[in-house]
Amino acid sequence: MGFSGISPWSLLLILVIVLVIFGTKRLRNAGGDLGSAIKNFKKAMSDAGNEAENEAPRVSRQDSNVIDSEAKSKSEDKV
């Protein structure tokens, strides 16, 4: 088939062996834990992105004019 020599019957056999070894309850819990971990990771990444946006200084056009005029007046004082 398309799995480089692994037939669907082989995959089914592997699934049955895993179910026998671990049991359905343990696999269900592992799946839930994995889903929670992914959900928490995505939440942490979005929270970190929001914090970075909030920490970035925002300079309005009026503030930049004040800064420019202060810089000009200080350079004129030195001359």
Protein architecture, described:
It contains three helices and no strands. The protein is mainly α and 79 residues long. It has one domain. The radius of gyration is 30 Å and the shape is elongated. The model has no long low-confidence stretch (mean pLDDT 76).
Summarize the main sheet. none
Low-confidence stretches: none
Q: What's the pLDDT, averaged over the residues?
A: 76
What is the 3D form? elongated
Helix/strand order, N-terminal first: HHH
Helix content: over 70%
Number of domains: 1
Q: What structural category do the secondary elements indicate? A: mainly alpha
Number of helices: 3
Report, as a whole number of angstroms, the end-to-end distance: 82 Å
Please describe the topology of this protein.
Layout: H1 8-22, H2 24-55, H3 61-78
